[in-house]
Amino acid sequence: MHRDVITHIVVTKTDFIITGSCDGHIKFWKKMEELIEFVKHFRSHLGPILDLSANSNGSLLCSISSDKSLKVFDVVNFDMINMMRLDYVPHCAEWIHSPGDAISALAL
Prior knowledge:
Strand content: over 45%
Structural class: mainly beta
CATH class: Mainly Beta
Largest sheet: 4 strands, antiparallel
CATH architecture: Beta Barrel
Pfam families: WD40
Distance between the termini: 29 Å
WD repeats: 1-30, 42-83
Number of strands: 10
InterPro entries: WD40/YVTN_repeat-like_dom_sf, WD40_repeat_dom_sf, WD40_rpt
Keywords: WD repeat
């Protein structure tokens, strides 16, 4: 459960549900046959989460925040794998790719 208002929900092709709240917390949940199981909690950002975006195969998640940071998570292994400090407050994040591309790019 989140302690504050959930502002973003992402469902991946890998059967994970990721929720983000206005206090900067991100939680990973695994969709089971009849239940949803809590998996991992991250205190990801100091400010509210402005967007959550998963790539097309559901293996990566990006979060952006009003604290001028971007974080990338490995969804399947529940691990933060990259973070960046930005010079601006991002308002939207989206993974982009062409059919057949092995690598997705992240647009802010």
